[in-house]
Amino acid sequence: MVKDKTLAENFLKREGRLNRLRYFKRNVVLVIVTFILMFIAAIIFMDYTTYKVSTAGHIAFFIIMLIMFVPSYCLVVRRLHDMDRDELLAKMYIAGGVTSFFLNFILKYEFEPLEIVMVILGLYILLVPGTQGANRYGADPLK
User: Fold this and answer.
1) Contact in structure between 26 and 141 (CB atoms under 8 Å)
2) Contact (Cβ atoms closer than 8 angstroms) between residue 2 and residue 78
3) Is 12 exposed, middle or buried (0-12, 13-18, 19+ CB in 10 A)?
4) What does the alpha-carbon distance between residue 11 and residue 8 come to, in Å, rounded to a whole number?
5) Bridge partners of 46?
6) 60-101 pLDDT, tens per residue?
7) Where are the domains of the chain?
């Protein structure tokens, strides 16, 4: 089993495979980092007379999310490689995430069918086991 050593190998590499547990742990890290960055942006861009985040704050949120979608995409690609699937599903998943974020937080519009599809797809990526043994993307990450 080859372990990722650097930050870039952990979060920005798209080659190889990533098992479910490592995928989950790395996503927890991304969620925590995203939350901290969003919290800082909210403090910076808060209008303290109305206690609402300004338009600049919403733009900052969108930029933070776009930046955080890069490592998320890389993790999804490697997770799909573990299931012997190509990057197309990862592209669809990230495009759905960007669209959902844009609709919800920027336009204040909820599109529930998209959110349901995103949850189902996310659970699929997280819960479906990888192929046993080597596949076209590399050796089994559990061995």
Assistant:
1) no
2) no
3) middle
4) 5
5) 53
6) 988 998 899 999 999 999 999 999 999 999 999 888 888 887
7) 17-127
Please give the pLDDT value at position 114.
81
User: Residue 129, Cβ neighbours under 10 Å: how many?
Assistant: 10
Give the residues of the chain that fall short of pLDDT 50: none
> Which pTM was predicted?
0.86
Tokens matching residue 103:
């609709």
Reading the block at residue 18, the tokens are 């990533």
Q: How far from 29 is each of 10, 16, 89, 106, CA to CA, in Å?
A: 11, 20, 22, 24
**H or E element that contains 53:** strand 52-53
Residue 21 amino acid letter? L
The pLDDT value recorded for residue 103 is 81
The CB density around residue 75, as the number of other CB atoms within 10 Å, is: 25
